[in-house]
Amino acid sequence: MWPVLFFLVTMVVISQGSALGLNGHQIHLLQPKSGSWGLHVPNVSCLSWRLGVETHNIIGWSTVPKECEGYVGHYMLGYQYRSDSKVVANQALLYAQSLDLAGDGKDVWIFDVDETTLSNLPYYAEHGFGAEPYNSTLFNAWVLEGKAFALPESLNLYEKLLSLGIKVVFITGRGESQRNVTTTNLKNVGYHTWEKLILKSSSYTGVTSLVYKSSERKKLEKKGYRIVGNMGDQWTDILGHHAGNRTFKLPDPMYYIS
Ligand SMILES: *[C@@H]1O[C@H](CO)[C@@H](O)[C@H](O)[C@H]1NC(C)=O
Ligand SMILES: *[C@@H]1O[C@H](CO)[C@@H](O)[C@H](O)[C@H]1NC(C)=O
Ligand SMILES: *[C@@H]1O[C@H](CO)[C@@H](O)[C@H](O)[C@H]1NC(C)=O
Ligand SMILES: *[C@@H]1O[C@H](CO)[C@@H](O)[C@H](O)[C@H]1NC(C)=O
Ligand SMILES: [Mg+2]
């Protein structure tokens, strides 16, 4: 049994080495530690794609590559998405706890809504996890149901920020017409209070999220608020001007908003 296994393992390592062009002696091939027997990493190209998305090297994409639909689905529904979100929320909390706050009620934390405080995973699970082209009619119908659930890691962070005396401001790409349902949905899942809920007014029609969110943050600072932290699932939530003293990017391999 063991000699046979050793032989098989050796063969696989050698053949992987050749495939990587490593049969010279320049690189000592390490045995990858993930995957069954540490020999096979499934869907490595989808993992690379997701890393490219999360690092903002891949931008302006419209749908998840078709061959990565299953990969993204497993990522979102499995423990990895939650674990990755937990790391972000934990870092945000450590940072918030380290702040020397003035205590004058002007310190605010900005949260995005979709895929940040609320999760639309039930919708995306039925629509290819972002592999299907975005359909605004269907998505808005889902939003109007008001059944999005809370991202547990964000809700936990929200509670802790409030207890530190930091006020919460939501800035969302949802339109003004969705104020009521968004308010109800947020309250139903545990976000019981906030300083402001800023929705995209019609004056921003055709304006990118990056520009809209930056200009709303500028208005907040003009009113005397200090944006100590800012968290979103899109890079356009946290890039641009008046981004806040620190920004935190939650994972989202399902869609890209410019
Ligand atoms: C991995 O990728 C292949 C295509 O490259 C796909 O057929 C398969 O369903 C994927 N597996 C998972 C778990 O997503
Ligand atoms: C969106 O979905 C609706 C309902 O299924 C469909 O009638 C419509 O054609 C879709 N729109 C696009 C742009 O695909
Ligand atoms: C807001 O929603 C609540 C229930 O969710 C409803 O009772 C109320 O009439 C709505 N208000 C507006 C202005 O649509
Ligand atoms: C936070 O950001 C503001 C605005 O950019 C800046 O004036 C302030 O010095 C920053 N505070 C800290 C503690 O870095
Ligand atoms: Mg979002």
UniProtKB/TrEMBL annotation:
Name the Pfam families on file. Acid_phosphat_B
Alphabetized InterPro entries for the sequence: Acid_phosphat_B-like, Acid_phosphatase_pln, APS1/VSP
Q: Which GO terms describe its molecular function?
A: acid phosphatase activity
The signal sequence is: 1-19
Keyword Signal on entry: yes
- Annotated keywords: Signal, Storage protein
Family the entry assigns: Belongs to the APS1/VSP family.
Q: What does this protein do?
A: May function as somatic storage protein during early seedling development.
Name of the protein in its database record:
Acid phosphatase
